[in-house]
Amino acid sequence: VCPVGALTERDHTNRLLLDLENPDKVVIVQTAPAVRAALGEEFGLPAGTLVTGKMVYALRELGFDYVFDTDFAADLTIMEEGAEILNRLTRYMNGDKSVRLPILTSCCPAWVNFFEHHFPDMLDIPSTARSPQQMFGSIAKTFWAEKMGIPREKLVVVSIMPCLAKKYECDRNEFKTDGSPDVDYSISTRELARLIRRANVGFTLLTDKEFDQPMGASTGAGVIFGTTGGVMEAALRSVYEIYTGRTLENVNFEQVRGLAGVRRATIDLDGFELKVGIAHGLGNARHLLEDIRHGRNEYHVIEIMACPGGCIGGGGQPLHHGNSEVLYARANALYREDAQKPLRKSHENPYIKTLYEEYLGRPLSETAERLLHTHYFNKAN
Ligand code: SF4
Fold first, then answer.
1. Predicted model pTM
2. Complex ipTM > 0.85
3. What does pLDDT average to in each consecutive run of 10 residues of the chain (381 residues)?
4. Structural domains in the chain plus CATH codes
5. How far is the CA of 69 from the centre of ligand 1 (A)?
6. How many CB atoms neighbour CB 5 within 10 A?
């Protein structure tokens, strides 16, 4: 069960139906990577059946004006988080004593909430990169809306997430402009299944449809964000190439995959041994953070996800009751989609390149910091 919001799950499906019927609104949707690996289970398909194309078709049938992919924003997250990792590492290697390591990933809102409450003395070590959900909303309501000539008040951004904590992330004040949220609201995988059934869409009979562009384009790195270790593997693919200047021949970092609660790996970056850690489940995260707090840190970068298995095991997914076979099947589905992608490194996504050329400038630019980064709060009291 999701560690945040599980007992007070908000249901936005009625609000969504009203927005979809409103001719004055342009309603767009983004779908998180883990959703496509589990939604089919709600319609009797075996765990691990990839239903990406059917999901896109069903969302068009429901009436969304544009169907986009959160994986696009996952690629963007890697650009920003990867730049932060390289920046901190370079300063560290140059002897800058003020650098705090390890850097922690920040795309799981339940995890962010957890460290704000329990580790307020360490708020400067997580990456400041917003989650893919929020990066998507930010870019959709600025760059994309400006290009399309859609006023902010007419645009409704909805997300389909495996997660209940994402509903609360949309509501954080840091992710609003003049009180208006970048992502208006989030619908869980199970809620989407209910909507599809309510609309009498024969899900299993649907053919495959493609995402709309440009925010439907992603690399394989964006896809694997949905499983534990995926954010780390995606980051390593880009950090390796940008740091060494060489092409990574084998992009599969098998050593960070799997379902063990805490995993470690050492990656050779031209003689520098980059030590990375992966934890899923907040109990495992707490142990790692207590070690860091007491000076027993062995890592440069750590990925933490609150749910077992990462987002594939999120609280908004079809119930899996801790069944690790189901989690393995969903993870393998994402690795299959990654392997089928023509591009598998975030920095090679052509639309991400265009976004930087036309709008953001470069990772960690002033515009990127304003739209794609955040800050954290001491919530201990
Ligand atoms: Fe949500 Fe994924 Fe974090 Fe679970 S691991 S709380 S599904 S973001």
1. 0.96
2. yes
3. 52 94 98 98 97 98 98 98 96 91 96 96 96 98 98 98 96 95 98 97 98 98 98 97 95 96 94 95 93 91 96 94 92 98 98 98 98 97 75
4. 6-372 (3.40.50.1780)
5. 17
6. 20
